[in-house]
Specification:
The protein has 200 residues and is α/β, with parallel strands linked by helices. It has a single domain, classed as Carbonic anhydrase (Beta-carbonic Anhydrase, Chain A, 3-Layer(aba) Sandwich), CATH 3.40.1050.10. The protein has helices spanning 6-11, 14-29, 38-44, 65-68, 88-100, 115-121, 129-134, 137-147, 152-170, 172-179, and strands at 53-57, 76-80, 105-111, 184-190, 197-199. Strand 4 and strand 5 form a beta hairpin. The longest helix has 19 residues, at 152-170.
């Protein structure tokens, strides 16, 4: 399969971009990945890239974005940071993906058994990790207020939603693109137990 051309990227709607990610995860689950010539894709993308989506995920080694969604070289942007949190650099990267490079969808992807979320729930404080984990606290508070308990998997889902809220509130570019229908912002959770992605 060839890499995505500019014409192909422009023809993909935001809804279609999300559907393509869902279809890719289904192929991954079925162990039915598209046969790709990765060396050919390296050559094809050497002059430029036209990714149709950007995925913000955790650094967890069990969540390999391109494999999870059965994507090739040049198909998706992948932004990774522990706990899939939002900060200025992540926002700038995603703004580049959508505002400059033409991506049509943003997927914020949390995952089960997340070490960052678990550590935040336990109140871990060590080095620069402390500041990072503090960004997960709004999700902890939301779950605690709603359910009365701090459940790691519920906080994981809430943290995905909080990252989307932060993205919309802190980036006029992304919220503007979404309002005009140029992009779609969605959340999902990857299950490390079986490779399944559940969209929220």
């Amino acid at each position: 399969m060839s890499s995505i051309t500019k014409e192909m990227q422009e023809s993909i709607t935001p809804n279609k971009a999300i559907e393509m990610l869902k279809e890719g995860n289904q192929r991954f689950l079925n162990n039915n990945a598209i046969k790709r010539d990765l060396h050919a894709q390296v050559r094809e993308t050497s002059g430029g890239q036209n990714p149709y989506a950007v995925v913000l995920s955790c650094i967890d080694s069990r969540v390999p974005v391109e494999l999870t969604f059965d994507q090739g070289i040049g198909d998706v942007f992948s932004a990774r940071v522990a706990g899939n949190i939002i900060n200025e650099d992540i926002l700038g990267s995603i703004e580049y993906a959508c505002g400059v490079a033409g991506s049509k969808a943003i997927l914020v992807l949390g995952h089960t058994k997340c070490g960052a979320v678990t550590s935040a729930c336990k109140g871990v404080e060590v080095g620069n990790i402390t500041a990072l984990l503090s960004k997960i606290k709004p999700a902890i508070s939301e779950v605690q207020e709603r359910t009365g308990v701090v459940d790691v998997e519920e906080v994981t889902k809430s943290n995905v939603r909080q990252s989307i809220i932060e993205m919309r509130s802190k980036s006029t570019m992304l919220s503007g693109l979404e309002k005009e229908g140029s992009i779609k912002i969605v959340g999902a959770v990857y299950h490390v137990e079986d490779g399944r992605v559940t969209f929220l």
